Amino acid sequence: MDNRSKILLCALELFSDKGYDAVGIQEIVDKSEISKPTMYHYFGNKQGLLDALLKEYFDRLFCKLKDVIVYQGDLPLTLYRIVMTYFNFSKENPQFYRMQLSMIYSPKKSLIAESVTTMNTYQYKIIEDLFISASQDHGNMKGRHCIYASTFLGMINTYIGLFLDDSLELNEECIYKAVHQFMHGIYS
Prior knowledge:
Helix content: over 70%
Number of domains: 1
Number of strands: 0
Largest sheet: none
Shape: elongated
Strand content: under 5%
């Protein structure tokens, strides 16, 4: 494994276990078994490291979502595929998902917020766009895309949080129930 990848993996483990603010550069370089100049060469500083970590993992998630998030006339099926994609991604990348969940409500002016806001905004945007498209077939949904996107992603993240705390199994039945419950709310 090259030094850059090693630093990213070690930082991810530390940020996931302790939180971004609780981890110092020295701890990252010690765990990575590299020098500070090497870390600075690749990332510039701790925030640059976080930005690279967020970009790498969110790019993977967005790549997986790209094909399933397109509305093609069957909203329940589309939502099912989106939930399945998020659940599978969180199972494949539990440390990343725990880390990014912990950052969602970070203080507005914090370095974490600077780093994570762009990625979170994009997530909401692509889900909002889905609901805007679906509203063409479902008139009662018009103008509600923002709240639907927030509620839908919030539900997904809550289920994943329960999974990460060993309180819920993310399986087919769970996906079905989550989507079914959500659909009852938006069709009212």
